[in-house]
Write a structure and sequence with these properties.
Elements: E1 4-8, H1 26-38, E2 42-46, H2 67-73, H3 76-81, E3 98-101, H4 107-110, H5 115-126, E4 130-134, E5 157-158, H6 163-168, H7 179-185, E6 189-190, E7 201-204, E8 207-210, H8 216-226
Parallel strand pairs: 1-2, 1-3, 3-4, 4-8, 5-6
Antiparallel strand pairs: 7-8
Helix pairs in contact: 1-8
Length: 229
C-alpha cells in the first residue's frame, strides 16, 4: 500500500486587523505536494475547521508565485481541494503515515489551539509516524501534548519561521506573537539557518521541520526519507 500524508492548511484569512489579509502560503503546499506525489503517496488536506482555506496574497506575487503555485492556482480541480478540506473529526490518524503542517501567517491564529489537530498529531507521533511542518506551520506544534502530559516539542530540535525573518518581511508589528520565542519557552531546541529565507531543515527522529517557504521542498524530501523511501 502507498503511504498516506495528511496536509494541514489554515481557515483564517486576515490578521487581527481585517484590512491586512493573509492565509495559506500556497507554494508551501504545492512544493511538498509534488514531492509526495512523485513518491506515490496518497494525500488528504485538513484544516482546523474544515472547508475553505484562503490564500495569502503575498504568496501569489513574484518571486513567491512560482510555477507550481501558478499551476495549482490555475487548476480548478486543485483549487477545489482547498475549498473542501476535511475537518479533524473526519480524520482517523491510523489512516496516515505522516502529517505536514503548511504555513502562512494565518496559521498562527487557528493552528495552536485546535484540539482536533492536537489529537491527530499526538496519536501519529506516539505510534512512530512522521510529524512535520514548514515555516509558520510549527505553530501547530506549540501546544500539542503527549499522553503523559508533556509537550511534544520539549527537548526536541526543530526550526520554523525566525523572528528575524518576521522583521525583514515587515510583518513583526502585525503578527499576534513571536513564534520563535514561544517555541523556546516551551523547551524546544530551536535552530535557524545563518541566512534568512534560505532553505533550512531539521530532523529529530520522526519530527521534521523546515524554517521558511523556501524550505518546503527540502522538508518534504526529508519526510520521504524519514518514512524510509
Amino acid at each position: 500500500m502507498s503511504k498516506r500524508i495528511l496536509n494541514v492548511v489554515t481557515n483564517v484569512g486576515h490578521y487581527d486587523d481585517p484590512s491586512h489579509p493573509t492565509g495559506l502560503w500556497l507554494s508551501e503546499l504545492t512544493h511538498a505536494w509534488h514531492v509526495f506525489e512523485d513518491a506515490g503517496y496518497e494525500q488528504t488536506i485538513v484544516s482546523p475547521g474544515g472547508g475553505s482555506s484562503p490564500l495569502e496574497p503575498r504568496a501569489l506575487k513574484f518571486p513567491n508565485y512560482d510555477k507550481t503555485a501558478k499551476a495549482w492556482h490555475a487548476d480548478p480541480a486543485r483549487m477545489a481541494l482547498l475549498e473542501t478540506t476535511k475537518s479533524p473529526d473526519e480524520i482517523d490518524p491510523n489512516d496516515y503515515d505522516a502529517i505536514y503542517f503548511t504555513g502562512g501567517h494565518a496559521v498562527m491564529y487557528d493552528f495552536p489551539d485546535s484540539e482536533g489537530l492536537q489529537r491527530i498529531t499526538r496519536e501519529l507521533y506516539e505510534r512512530g509516524a512522521v510529524v512535520s511542518s514548514v515555516c509558520h506551520g510549527y505553530c501547530g506544534l506549540l501546544n500539542t501534548t503527549l499522553s503523559d502530559g508533556s509537550l511534544l516539542v520539549a527537548g526536541k530540535r526543530l526550526t520554523g519561521f525566525a523572528w528575524r525573518e518576521e522583521v525583514l518581511a515587515k510583518v513583526d508589528k502585525l503578527v499576534p506573537y513571536n513564534a520563535e520565542e514561544e517555541m523556546k519557552e516551551r523547551g524546544a531546541l530551536y535552530e535557524k539557518g545563518l541566512i534568512p529565507f534560505a532553505s533550512y531543515v531539521v530532523t529529530d527522529g520522526t519530527l521534521v521541520t523546515g524554517q521558511n517557504p523556501g524550505s518546503a521542498k527540502a522538508t518534504a524530501k526529508a519526510v520521504v526519507e524519514a518514512l524510509g523511501d
